[in-house]
Design brief:
With 468 residues, the protein is α+β, with helices and mostly antiparallel strands. It folds into four domains: 6-98, 2-Layer Sandwich (Uridine Diphospho-n-acetylenolpyruvylglucosamine Reductase, domain 2), CATH 3.30.43.10; 103-218, 2-Layer Sandwich (Uridine Diphospho-n-acetylenolpyruvylglucosamine Reductase, domain 3), CATH 3.30.465.10; 226-334, 2-Layer Sandwich (Alpha-Beta Plaits); 337-426, 2-Layer Sandwich (Alpha-Beta Plaits), CATH 3.30.70. The chain is built from 15 helices and 16 strands. The chain has a seven-stranded antiparallel β-sheet, sandwiched between helices. Strands 5-6-9-7-8 form a five-stranded antiparallel β-sheet. The chain has a four-stranded mixed β-sheet with strand order 1-2-4-3, with helices on both faces. Strand 7 (170-177) and strand 8 form a beta hairpin. Helix 8 (236-249) packs antiparallel against helix 10 (295-308) and helix 13 packs antiparallel against helix 14. The longest helix has 21 residues, at 397-417. The radius of gyration is 23 Å and the shape is globular. The chain binds (2R)-2-hydroxypentanedioic acid and zinc ion (ZN).
Length: 468
């Protein structure tokens, strides 16, 4: 635990105020609470200070100063993470990049945009749209998450089956390493066969190697009039059968699923059922459908699935507004259950192994949590399932977390047999650190440690996150 005696910490912070404007070196309780945690809400924020540099040189000065005085730094974006990677509960200095929020360059020929790390994801999406293009990395927290955080966690989201992860869209990165050096990585190039690609080490590094300060992102052509189908599915096995059939005929841009139990929470918040009948599961399928070109094909596929008994009911959007409404049934789930302090798991397995894993997990969860509300949803088309266990109102938080942690071990043992990952897209941070060995073996973790040592020899960058 890094805690400095008050006199020492006051002097340390005065030292920072010598190169960052005093108004941007904050110690008030509100800032500590806001900037000291992410959306996990499991840890008590306790940063020494929150620092908001406005220039890259200030980030470098801060890292050098932190090395001199052994001050731990926690890089901070929109703090929408769900694994505690942006939590400062051990007297660290939070480094918020939110003042570095400018779009710096756009090139229509390259189809690329260069922006500072603190630009909000949705601002990049809107910027691309206003220039006739599309930034396809998308998820429910688009309005608050920041590009730097997206990159530091290699954010996934709802369009991965067609567009891949954040990693696939980053063509350039400027980073300040844990040693205080500014590296200009790959400079927007598509091809660059000159040895190790350090850019990819920083993507997904969760702030443990340094701070991302600038990024160049590729853009795509816009989606052409996407249509959305929501289908009611009686049995888990039907889900992947539907996926297989639909993707043979249509180029899908999303294939999501959620359970009836999960749906009920968004209905409680005022959304409407997509159709009258209830089924234990639902899938949401999105595909480009310019001028309704593929509607007949989609309806024929719907009929085929119905004949096989894979689906019981369904609806197809008739307008952009209706497509958006249908998306909310899936996208609003996470926020709608936040008040129940869910224990979250975010697992991944190869697509072909999803049905067998689902069956095994379902059986295990029903056995281990007979009286808990367990909600399933996620990006099943890329093999990513979110499992949320809601805390019963009368259960004490620590006891609940302990029980869930024990069941997670059974879950991860099964997952390991399937060659899966204990974190598909939410990262490791603090909450999944104890389970990392289920996905990365000791030899591999020793290489991760060695890499960290190169970029951050004094261990000041987000210590205690991913691994110890
Ligand atoms: C989603 O897909 C987010 O909605 C959040 O990744 C998942 O709340 C969750 O477990
Ligand atoms: Zn997700």
């Amino acid at each position: 635990m890094t805690l400095y005696p008050p006199s020492e910490s006051a002097a340390l912070l005065d030292g920072i105020r010598a190169f960052i404007e005093p108004a941007h070196v904050r110690t008030d309780p509100d800032s500590a609470l806001t900037y000291g945690r992410d959306w996990t809400r499991l840890h008590t924020p306790n940063p020494l200070a929150v620092v908001l540099p406005g220039r890259i040189e200030q980030v470098q000065q801060l890292v050098r100063y932190a090395n001199e005085h052994r001050l731990p730094l926690v890089p901070s974006g929109g703090r929408t993470g769900l694994s505690g990677a942006a939590v400062a509960c051990q007297g660290e200095i939070v480094v918020s990049l939110e003042r570095l929020n400018r779009i710096l360059d756009f090139d229509p020929v390259d189809r690329s945009v260069t922006c500072q790390a603190g630009v909000v994801t949705e601002v990049v999406q809107n910027f691309a749209r206003d220039h006739g293009l599309y930034y396809p990395v998308d998820f429910a927290s688009r309005g608050s998450s920041q590009i730097g955080g997206n990159i530091a966690t290699n954010a996934g989201g709802i369009k991965v089956i067609r567009y891949g992860l954040t990693r696939d869209w980053v063509t350039g990165l400027k980073v300040v390493t844990g040693r205080g050096d500014l590296l200009d990585l790959n400079r927007g190039l598509i091809k660059n066969a000159t040895g190790y690609d350090l850019r990819h080490l920083f993507i997904g590094s969760e702030g443990t190697l340094g701070l991302i300060v600038e990024a160049t992102l590729k853009l795509a052509r816009p989606l052409r009039e996407p249509s959305v189908l929501v289908l009611g599915v009686p049995d888990l096995n039907g889900i992947m059968a539907i996926y297989d059939l639909f993707r043979r005929k249509l180029e899908l841009t999303a294939f999501e699923f959620f359970s009836e139990l999960a749906l009920r929470h968004v209905l409680n918040k005022g959304l409407h059922r997509p159709f009258d009948s209830e089924t234990p599961y639902y899938v949401l399928i999105e595909f480009e459908n310019p001028d309704g070109l593929h509607t007949d094909e989609a309806l024929a596929l719907f009929e085929q699935c119905a004949e096989q008994g894979w689906l019981a009911d369904g609806v197809i959007s008739q307008s952009e507004a209706q497509a958006k409404e249908l998306w909310r049934l899936r996208e609003d789930i996470s926020e709608s259950i936040a008040e129940h302090q869910p224990y979250k798991n975010d697992i991944a397995v190869r697509i072909a192994r999803v049905p067998a894993l689902l069956a095994e997990m379902d059986e295990l969860l029903q056995r281990e949590y007979p009286d808990f509300e367990v909600l399933w949803y996620g990006h099943i088309g890329d093999g990513n399932l979110h499992i949320n266990i809601l805390k019963p109102a009368d259960r004490e938080s620590a006891a609940f977390a302990k029980q869930c942690g024990t069941v997670s071990e059974h879950l991860f043992e099964a997952l390991q047999r399937y060659g899966g990952s204990i974190s598909a897209e939410h990262g490791v941070g603090l909450t999944k650190k104890p389970y990392l060995h289920y996905t990365r073996d000791e030899a591999e973790i020793s290489y991760l440690r060695a890499i960290k040592q190169v970029f951050d020899p004094q261990g000041i960058m987000n210590p205690g996150k991913i691994f110890d």
